[in-house]
Amino acid sequence: TAEEIEAGIYRPQLTTYQRIGSTFLKIQFSAQKILFGNSLQEFDEDRFEDVLSILRQSLFETGVSVGKEILRYAMVMSFHPAKNIPKIDGYPVRVIIKDFSKINLTEKMDLSNTKFGNGGDSLQFRSKSHALTFYNKTLDLFKNEKKALDRDQKAQQKSLFDFMKQEKPPDILRIEVRLSEKAKMNSVLHKLGYTKNPTFADIFKREIWQRVLLDYFQTY
């Protein structure tokens, strides 16, 4: 509701669709925002039970009752592993992103669309099925929804940086791999030696997040 948005309450995005005579519920959410209300704080797989409990409660508050075990073994359609990296060796994030923008990836992978923008604060190599994204996470918090790469900037995220009014904002580089289609996600997991068609429990592992990010970064 408008009141929840104003209060900074985060809710999953829910979509129902029909396939082969059955009705499915698609639940789209950020695990970081489910836990903390922001995508700056990070966590390990030992928080999985917390994510399941909070997600189940949030769904219940919207009128959707789903058992915890159903969520645990739910089919994953896509996922976006990411990492926040503080300022690197004194280099401003904008300089790092500008250097990355000079790389031509079209010959190496099917990321045919390169977008370098937001005043030099973001870079996206993307296609329909996946994307490799770099952006200044700190500055992205204060962009409007049309310009921000994280379109769900809630009050809790911005309040983390209230001190910026008096101090210089810290530079944080966010690297994100967006595996937007199941076929591409399965292809990447298979390449790295993991099982295709993962459940939520299968995919909620630090090793997988790290290996996907490192594979994209080192390969491309």
Keywords:
single chain, 20% strand, 5-stranded antiparallel beta sheet, 220 residues, two-stranded antiparallel sheet, alpha+beta
Q: What do these coordinates show?
A:
This protein is an alpha+beta fold and 220 residues long. A hairpin with a 2-residue loop joins strand 1 and strand 2. The radius of gyration is 18 Å and the shape is globular. The protein starts with a helix and ends with a helix. The chain is built from ten helices and seven strands. The model has no long low-confidence stretch (mean pLDDT 85).
Task: Describe the SSE topology.
Layout: H1 2-7, E1 13-19, E2 22-28, H2 31-36, H3 48-61, H4 68-72, E3 82-86, H5 93-100, E4 113-117, E5 122-126, E6 130-136, H6 137-140, H7 155-159, E7 172-179, H8 182-191, H9 200-203, H10 206-219
Antiparallel strand pairs: 1-2, 3-7, 4-5, 5-6, 6-7
End-to-end separation: 41 Å
Q: What ranges have pLDDT less than 50 throughout 5 or more consecutive residues?
A: none
Structural class: alpha+beta
Mean pLDDT: 85
Beta-strand content estimate:
15-25%
Sequence of secondary-structure elements:
HEEHHHEHEEEHHEHHH
Order of strands, widest sheet = 3-7-6-5-4
Which radius of gyration do the C-alpha atoms yield?
Answer: 18 Å
- The total beta strand count reads 7
| Helix content estimate | 25-40%
Care to give the gist of this entry?
The chain is an alpha+beta fold and 220 residues long. It has ten helices and seven strands. 18% of the residues are buried.
